[in-house]
Amino acid sequence: MGKARSPSPRETARPILSGVPDHGAILNEKALAERFNEVVLPHLGDALALARWLTGNATDAEDVVQDACIKAHAGMPGYAGGNARAWLLTIVRNTSYSWMARHRPRGMMAVGDLGDLDDIAAAHGTSLPDEDGPEASLIARADTAAVEAAIAALPHPFRETLVLRDINGLSYREIAAMLDVPMGTVMSRLARARGLLASELGRAP
To answer: Are 116 and 101 within one domain?
Structure first.
């Protein structure tokens, strides 16, 4: 008979007992939680604001943000850094539309054809938005409730672009990436949105 084989180091290693936590996994979960707290929590206010504007309802916005946070947590290992707020708001935007598609009648989701709205903006000769123009001045002087009502009445793509830029403070490039449209389209929609908003506020008593 041949000489008995000595057990390998792998075979003699102490097995992980069933029910005993894997400390490596615990550390990974802890690091993941810390990263979530750093990346997501500072921007929850912006997330709620965007969800409220998109859904038109504070209660629905809370549900959307809760779902978005779950998705953000699941996607945290793939987060490559960069603008954390833009990353989170992209998740919130997509979650808002998914949530409304599930919970609201189809007729309430109609927002018009985006191409048509871009054509309308072009037909009105809109150019680069003027941050300090007369529209911005009028909007700044208007009553908060009147501004909110006027924003809510905007066609959806214009409202979304205005909120992302003027309320959430995203750059044109970040908005273009989020909406998957050219940066010129973002500028056109924003200029048109501000013009419509100023026109509506100018008619307000």
So the answer is: no
